[in-house]
Amino acid sequence: MFMTLANYCRPCLAILLAIFLVGCARLPDSAQNADPRMGQLMEKVDMSLDRQGVLDEHLQMQSMQLQMQQEQLRTMSDSLGVALHAPVLQDCPKVSACPAREEDASKLVVGAKEEIWLSALELPIKARIDTGLQTSSLNVRNVASFERDGKPWVRFEIFDSRNDEWVQVERKLRRTIGIVQEGDAEPKRRPVVRLGIVVGDVKEKAEFTLVERKREGYQALLGRSTLSDVMIVDVSRENIAPYVLVDEPDAVAGATQ
Predict the structure, then answer these.
(1) What is the DSSP string of 32-78?
(2) Against a cut of 0.85, is the pTM above it?
(3) CA 78, 81, 84: angle at the middle one, nearest 5?
(4) Fold of 103-256
(5) How does pLDDT run across 13-36, given as a tens digit for each residue?
(6) Sites in the chain below the pLDDT cut of 70
């Protein structure tokens, strides 16, 4: 559009200039010299021609910029066309669910609550399965430490629900652990003993933290260290794995130590 306007104005200015020149040629020299307006007019025509030249240069630069922009748009359009026509990836095949581990079939399934057998004490107790607990715990009373043959032992009482009485038990101290309870400034040290237990048909030697609980509840809490690798917990069920006693001379004999 700019180029068309420039091309149209240039001939008009040339014709106008020619008319003035012809008019000037017909006037006598005295008339030309006598009229100063003719000189002023000629100066204005020269200035118009100069401005026209500058305008032509600007129009050429704008035309070049327009061409460059058109080339950039063409390149972007080609790139967009390639992207739109790119092949669409096929949906990935669905992955089938992982098969159940073979070892799980050999593990004992226990419920959230079970009755277990303390082998060395020949005592059944009610237990709750607590997967949030690392070491199993045993609810007892009157815990006292002493030495036997220069080694630490511990004496405590555990309740026998069959006879409705407390039974005194002595066991070698395995170790002590610190337990922090709400309201305590420092952790309390609690003894840990090892006892043989039977859960379902599984015999284990488990470590128990001795805890003196004032409130009534389950006599034992089975933690992860006891359940690991041998039991699976189904928290939606209860009492699904009653203990099975096998008449063996040394069944879980090491539970006394």
Answers:
(1) HHH-THHHHHHHHHHHHHHHHHHHHHHHHHHHHHHHHHHHHHHHHHH
(2) no
(3) 155
(4) Cathepsin D, subunit A; domain 1 (2.40.70)
(5) 556 555 555 554 454 554 445 567
(6) 1-35, 81-105, 181-185, 214-216, 247-257
